[in-house]
Write a structure and sequence with these properties.
about 280 residues, alpha+beta, four-stranded mixed β-sheet
């Protein structure tokens, strides 16, 4: 008779200690209540609480652990696979333990052209991968292209960076010095940031005060438009079909080309290889 072999897939969740579980339970009740009325509970609506719940478990574990996945699944009546599918889809949910400061370098097109790749290379050489204070990662575009190249620390912006300024930044983080982003108040740790993203109050002095104005790079296009007398095109009243009204000639031209096939590749648009 062949011997049975037990094969364990994945990591078996280790239960949270009782005191941690009690605290997370209380916070989870608060979060879920935002999405489902106690008078008329709606499980489908309550599932919307999954995103902040994932931030909540990250605020304790520093990443989305197997235990955190199980916690979220139990709270929302989901399977572990459903929670895992969501947590691995969004890049803000970490799959590995993260240091006190998550340093992200944007290497999308504009930041890369302006020096983002050089910054990433410099920090890779400068940082020890086993550093428990700073975790380095790539970032997708965070809509700060007017200040490229951009580095983010715990989702706070550090604009117009260079390899040297980025090295100085991570050295300050590792030394425990107070570090203030280009926009915003002093940084808090990754776990503290995650609790704020879960929807709990940001207690930092000045963190939620209104104010601030757009910088010169953001307004550059507007100033050029004003200088050159540029104006937005006039808005046409849409027809019942949702398209702007057309003159008879333009309408006829559109109708005659509607059914035509797409043009064949030309010298300026080479065909795919093998075709």
């Amino acid at each position: 008779m062949s011997e049975r072999v037990f094969l364990q897939l994945g990591t078996r969740p280790v239960p949270y200690p009782d005191d941690v579980l009690a605290r997370l339970d209380a916070d989870a009740i608060d979060i879920i209540a935002r999405y489902s009325s106690s008078e008329a509970p709606n499980p489908a609506m309550a599932r919307s609480a999954l995103l902040p719940l994932l931030h909540l478990v990250q605020s304790h574990d520093g990443y989305v652990s197997a235990t955190g996945i199980e916690f979220c699944a139990i709270k929302l009546g989901l399977t572990g696979a459903e929670v895992t599918a969501v947590s691995t889809f969004y890049s803000m949910y970490r799959r590995e333990p993260t240091g006190d400061y998550l340093v992200g370098v944007c290497t999308n097109t504009l930041c890369a052209v302006m020096g983002g790749d050089a910054i990433m290379d410099a920090l890779r050489e400068h940082l020890d991968p086993s550093d428990e204070t700073v975790t380095l990662t790539h970032l997708e575009c965070n809509a700060a292209c007017d200040y490229a190249p951009v580095v983010m620390v715990n989702w706070e912006f550090f604009d117009n960076q260079t390899p040297e300024s980025a090295r100085t930044l991570v050295d300050a983080l590792r030394s425990g010095s107070e570090v203030t982003p280009t926009r915003g108040v002093s940084l808090c740790t990754f776990k503290e940031t995650e609790r704020i993203l879960a929807g709990f109050p940001d207690e930092r002095l000045g963190a939620v005060e209104a104010g601030g104005t757009p910088g010169a790079p953001t307004l550059a296009g507007l100033r050029v438009a004003q200088r050159d007398g540029m104006r937005a095109p006039s808005v046409h009243t849409p027809t019942d079909s949702g398209s702007a009204p057309l003159g008879s000639e333009e309408a006829n031209a559109r109708e005659s080309t509607k059914e035509k096939p797409a043009p064949a590749p030309t010298e300026s648009v080479p065909p795919e290889k093998g075709h």
